[in-house]
Amino acid sequence: MTDSAQTLPEPEAVGALYDRLTRTALNDGTFNPNIHIGFWETPDSEATLEEAVDTLTDVLIERLLVDGSHHVLDLGCGVGGPALRVTRQTGARVTGVSISQEQVKTANRLAEEAGLADRAVFEHGDAMHLPFEDGSFDAVMALESIIHMPDRQQVLTEAARVLKPGGRLVLTDIFERAPRKEVPHPSIQKFCRNFMVTLADADDYVALLHRSGLRLRGLLDITEHTQQRTFRELARPTAEEDRPEALGQTNLPDLFRPADMLGVEEFGCLLAAAVRP
Ligand SMILES: C[S@@+](CC[C@H](N)C(=O)[O-])C[C@H]1O[C@@H](n2cnc3c(N)ncnc32)[C@H](O)[C@@H]1O
């Protein structure tokens, strides 16, 4: 199930999904500044989901190789949790872009409240057409956001364009692990449909990066550190997120629950790092 065989997400509809999700979370007390899965170093790690979510941001930060002299672009920045962490940990300036107006408003408010508004700025925009000059950034991160974008090639080409020579790209994406089936597992199909995402073709990822003008630095299957444990944690009966509405789903005929993904080992997560030569 590669981009061409899947229903492509429409940026405007994805923006509306995240507007709704943000408003719901702010109103019902489930608001979280990070909207991504966790990373556990080892299977017996006792880290909580909240800690593991920050660890995944740190896994990206390590590969961004930035300090206080650098400017980072966060593509699909959510409500700014990861970007503020980048600024706090490294001193780098961050510009975040999200297709959701509500997220941008919330992220700028959080930056202001954290006293970081001079280092972290959030803008509404579409990652497919970035409103920045060529060579504007030292690094680009895209944490669990390219999954919603209708054309990975275009997004990566845009990321390469706005990177300075020597600039780093780090991202996470989702894909179907081997052995691949003719028709993906029904839970994967439901997840993709309800959350407007598509699966990447992992076999083509290196070529995708190269066609975008980037040089591969690393491509890792991080599923066993991330996806499987995250769904296990979310599926616990007491987990706030184990409610379809907490995941932004309303008026859908077939709601996705985290427990649907238990044992679905083919639902994979990859980490890619590249550099603009
Ligand atoms: C799962 S959230 C991840 C948010 C953030 N990276 C984090 O980890 O907290 C996906 C993000 O991608 C953004 N997004 C999806 N499609 C986009 C597009 N075409 N242009 C810009 N942002 C987009 C959404 O608005 C949302 O902020």
Automatic annotation (TrEMBL):
The keyword Ubl conjugation does not apply. Keywords: Methyltransferase, S-adenosyl-L-methionine, Transferase. SMART domains: PKS_MT. GO terms for biological process: methylation. The keyword Kinase does not apply. SUPFAM superfamilies: S-adenosyl-L-methionine-dependent methyltransferases. InterPro entries: Erg6_SMT_methyltransf, MeTfrase_dom, Methyltransf_11, SAM-dependent_MTases_sf. Residues 33-276 form the Polyketide synthase-like methyltransferase domain. One of its GO terms (molecular function) is S-adenosylmethionine-dependent methyltransferase activity. It holds the Pfam family Methyltransf_11. PANTHER family: GERANYL DIPHOSPHATE 2-C-METHYLTRANSFERASE, ZGC:194242. This is Methyltransferase domain-containing protein.
